């Protein structure tokens, strides 16, 4: 290997280290998640409410106002 090439590689490595430094510290999985209690009366377990049933009904004719 050429001596000047080896010096260039060392200089480039030193420049990269000066610019980027080190990788950030690892973040534990436990620190990235959050536990939240689910609501009891939501979704399939919810009681039928005819006044609010339109919230879950989708019909193209109704959307177009036909």
Descriptive labels:
single chain; mainly alpha
Protein described:
With 66 residues, the protein is mainly alpha-helical. Helices cover 41% and strands 0% of the residues. The protein starts with a helix and ends with a helix. The model has no long low-confidence stretch (mean pLDDT 76).
Short recap of the structure:
By secondary structure, the protein is an all-alpha fold. Helices cover 41% and strands 0% of the residues. The longest helix has 18 residues, at 3-20.
User: Biggest sheet, open or closed, and with what strands and sense?
Assistant: none
Number of helices: 3
| Cα gyration radius (Å) | 30 Å
Residue-averaged pLDDT = 76
Strand content: under 5%
**Tally of strands:** 0
The global form is elongated
Uncertain stretches:
none
Structural class: mainly alpha
Helix percent band: 40-55%
Could you give the distance between the termini? 79 Å
- SSE pattern: HHH
What's the helix and strand layout?
Blueprint: H1 3-20, H2 29-32, H3 60-64
